[in-house]
Amino acid sequence: MMKNLNFILILVTIFVLSAIGLTFIFGSFYSWVQSTNLENWRQTFMYQEYVENMNLAVVPLSVALVILLGLCVPKRIFSGQALLISMGALLLTSALAMKVFGLMIGIGFLLVAASLTQLVVIGMTIAGSKRLSFEVQGFFLQIGSAVLHLGLIFFVYDLALLTESPYHLSVYWTATALIGVGMVLCFYSSEFSRLAGRGKAGSSDSNPVPS
Questions:
Q1: Are 168 and 162 in contact (CB under 8 A)?
Q2: Contacts for 51 with CB less than 8 Å, ≥ 6 apart
Q3: Spatial separation of the C-alpha atoms in residues 132 and 101, rounded to whole Å
Q4: What is the per-residue pLDDT for 180?
Q5: What is the pLDDT of residue 118?
Q6: What whole-number distance in Å separates Cα of residue 91 and Cα of residue 110?
Q7: Is the pLDDT reported for residue 129 higher than 70?
Q8: What does the chain look like in DSSP terms, one character per residue?
Q9: How far lies 180's CA from each of 92, 152, 199, in Å?
């Protein structure tokens, strides 16, 4: 059942990310066409209508992505019934926050909870915890995956809540740095593992154990 759940989460996440990408591509192309046909396109009523329509299209997809990211994090720590309970509790608490304090506060709560959980995952990965569950093997691949996921959470947090905030650029570049570091660790995990192995071997040679 858990394998099926993981597979479904992966498929739905790919679908949502693809839909967001296609929406931005279409929106960018439409805006470019309009800007070539209409002078002062950004000052027209049609541009304001275009922005509102883009928000209507992107916001539901962003909320879905937030929920998916929030659900993907607990599976690193929990499994079986505990995973289902943790996912249900996270969704229920976030839904209550949305109902009481509004959509943006609920999304923010979910993203903050996911970020804190992901930081715990990173700490446990560095500590070498055997409790964590990853689809991939290897320290650098796992830590890269965790850092990359944290960067994605920060990116969605910035996209959903901070576009008009003075902290927008700071969070954006933090997310970019985390995603970049995570991708490097994932793509070059074998090289980092070999370097780490050589370092350990060199340390052993320089500090021989007396017989």
A1: yes
A2: none
A3: 33
A4: 92
A5: 81
A6: 8
A7: yes
A8: -HHHHHHHHHHHHHHHHHHHHHHHHHHHHHHHHHHHHSTTGGGSHHHHHHHHHHHHHHHHHHHHHHHHHHHHTGGGT--HHHHHHHHHHHHHHHHHHHHHH-HHHHHHHHHHHHHHHHHHHHHHHHTT-SS---SS-SHHHHHHHHHHHHHHHHHHHHHHH-TTSTTHHHHHHHHHHHHHHHHHHHHTHHHHHHHHHHHHHHHHHHSPPP-
A9: 33, 11, 24
* 100, 55 Cβ separation under 8 angstroms: no
pLDDT of residue 173: 92
Answer yes or no: is pLDDT of 131 > 80: no
**Rg of the chain (C-alpha set):** 21
- CB-based contacts of 60-63 (< 8 A; 24+ apart in sequence): 61/16, 61/19, 61/20, 61/23, 62/20, 62/156, 62/159, 62/160, 63/103, 63/107, 63/160
Q: Look at residues 171, 177, 142, 141 and name the one whose alpha carbon lies nearest to residue 154.
A: 171
- Residue 206's pLDDT is 45
Looking at residue 207, its amino acid is N
pLDDT at 25: 92
Is the confidence at residue 45, as pLDDT, over 80? yes
Domain-wise residue ranges, the chain: 2-190
Asked if pLDDT for residue 79 goes beyond 90, the answer is no
User: How large a percentage of the chain has pLDDT more than 70?
Assistant: 82
